[in-house]
């Protein structure tokens, strides 16, 4: 292994979030409420499979063991299964995950598993079909639920389900969600709504802290689970009477960034040191040939020297991220 990717604050990076598209077919009100609209100006196509292979290999050579394939909606890419297979074939990569809206899962999840996908996160912001439609702009609740069931049928031992907490919409549904996971090996992850460049008004109206949920969990016997080095940012709680788990992602909590172990590469081939950082560092020119790997690693390592100790959400500064679909959330 080449030297482990590490920043100036001695944080090591084991986890790559790789966006393969910023296109999405849902209209979630916290991300793309008006739907996806391509940029007016002409831009290059999304990173290709050979480029993906090269950047993943470079990260693997520097200690990365987990890759999450994100979007937009990553499964909209026709070569999604090929991407999964390619990442899975990379020496050193132990976990290959994706985050999906789930609308294709029922039909395709068997192919994903066969290609090497080891972990799945599905967005499901409500257990009420009408409210799901209201939040996502799509009447696909039953399709997504069927996809989750199908994932278990083809052999996944656990499915992670992402729920963006929205005040006066789904923030009071904890009892329903707990009942759902009591006998299902689902890790339910409540994610605090995050402010981005285009979502100021929604944030002010709908943001709710996850602290109240954490307090309820602890009061009812839920226990904090130990983290693995390539885990994401969730605080995960377990309970002896539940097959499922609860995760809380609370980016506004003090110290959230102290355990940062992940970097992002966008679908345009830019390195993003933080979801809420400034414009990304161009990598794509060094993703064209296998012989460029040493230079690619050097550029990433140099970029890491500029990674800040924390985001600046507490200062009302979401950085350059216009919406979460733009670099994969």
Automatic annotation (TrEMBL):
The keyword 4Fe-4S applies. GTP binds at residues 17, 68, 99, 160, 262-264. Its cofactor is [4Fe-4S] cluster. Catalyzes the cyclization of GTP to (8S)-3',8-cyclo-7,8-dihydroguanosine 5'-triphosphate. Residues 8-234 form the Radical SAM core domain. It comes from Vibrio inusitatus NBRC 102082. It catalyses: GTP + AH2 + S-adenosyl-L-methionine = (8S)-3',8-cyclo-7,8-dihydroguanosine 5'-triphosphate + 5'-deoxyadenosine + L-methionine + A + H(+). GO terms for biological process: Mo-molybdopterin cofactor biosynthetic process. Its EC number is 4.1.99.22. [4Fe-4S] cluster 2 binds at residues 257, 260, 274. [4Fe-4S] cluster 1 binds at residues 24, 28, 31. Belongs to the radical SAM superfamily. MoaA family. Binds 2 [4Fe-4S] clusters. Binds 1 [4Fe-4S] cluster coordinated with 3 cysteines and an exchangeable S-adenosyl-L-methionine and 1 [4Fe-4S] cluster coordinated with 3 cysteines and the GTP-derived substrate. Pathway: Cofactor biosynthesis; molybdopterin biosynthesis. This is GTP 3',8-cyclase. Keywords: 4Fe-4S, GTP-binding, Iron, Iron-sulfur, Lyase, Metal-binding, Molybdenum cofactor biosynthesis, Nucleotide-binding, S-adenosyl-L-methionine. GO terms for molecular function: 4 iron, 4 sulfur cluster binding; cyclic pyranopterin monophosphate synthase activity; GTP 3',8'-cyclase activity; GTP binding; metal ion binding; S-adenosyl-L-methionine binding.
């Amino acid at each position: 292994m080449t030297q482990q990717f590490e920043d100036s604050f001695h944080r090591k990076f084991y986890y790559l979030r790789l966006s393969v598209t910023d296109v999405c077919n849902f209209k979630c009100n916290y991300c793309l409420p008006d739907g996806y609209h391509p940029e007016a100006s002409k831009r290059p196509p999304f990173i290709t499979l050979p480029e993906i292979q090269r950047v993943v290999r470079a990260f693997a050579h520097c200690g990365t063991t987990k890759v999450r394939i994100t979007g937009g909606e990553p499964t909209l890419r026709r070569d999604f299964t090929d991407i999964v297979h390619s990442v899975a074939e990379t020496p050193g990569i132990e976990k290959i995950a994706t985050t999906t809206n789930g609308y294709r899962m029922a039909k395709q999840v068997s192919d994903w598993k066969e290609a090497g996908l080891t972990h799945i996160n599905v967005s499901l912001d409500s257990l009420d079909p009408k409210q799901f439609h209201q939040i996502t702009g799509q009447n696909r609740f039953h399709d997504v639920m069927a996809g989750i069931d199908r994932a278990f049928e083809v052999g996944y031992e656990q499915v992670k389900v992402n729920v963006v907490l929205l005040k006066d919409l789904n923030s009071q549904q904890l009892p329903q969600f707990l009942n759902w996971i009591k006998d299902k090996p689902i890790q339910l992850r409540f994610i605090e709504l995050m402010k981005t460049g285009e979502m100021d008004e929604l944030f002010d109206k709908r943001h709710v802290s996850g602290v109240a949920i954490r307090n309820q969990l602890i009061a009812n016997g839920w226990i904090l689970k130990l983290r693995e080095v390539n885990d994401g940012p969730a605080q995960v709680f377990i309970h002896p009477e539940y097959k499922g788990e609860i995760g809380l992602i609370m980016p506004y909590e003090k110290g959230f960034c102290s355990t940062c172990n992940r970097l992002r590469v966008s679908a345009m081939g830019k390195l993003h040191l933080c979801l809420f950082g400034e414009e990304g560092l161009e990598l794509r020119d060094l993703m064209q040939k296998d012989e460029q790997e040493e230079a690619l690693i050097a550029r990433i390592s140099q970029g890491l020297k500029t990674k800040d100790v924390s985001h600046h959400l507490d200062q009302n500064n979401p950085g350059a991220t216009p919406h979460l679909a733009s670099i994969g959330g």
